[in-house]
Fold:
Amino acid sequence: MSRPVERTPDGRYVVVDGRRWRATDPDLPEDVAAILRSELMSARRAVGAALKADDAGAEATARARVQRAKTALGERGTPWWEQTAGERRARWEAGLDPAPGP
Structure:
């Protein structure tokens, strides 16, 4: 069972084991957030597989996928609380576009 997520009073960060991490954009529609989380987990598995295979090219590609998903979720890049509604929407829509080819 997962433990409850603690947030900072302003809601911008989650706190895990005393460490702050930027929270996912709360304005993301749940269906979009689910797709992006699924892509993030897939990309993280791909990083692990590339490391295990000692494949630097696959690792770089997988890490770029992680970056893209995290940015689309609002966890990296320009903080979501500094973006307009239109910029936030453009950010997550860019994350939903098919990833660039190899």
Remarks:
- The helical segments are 30-53, 56-73, 85-96.
- Residues 28-96 form one domain.
- The first helix runs from residue 30 to 53.
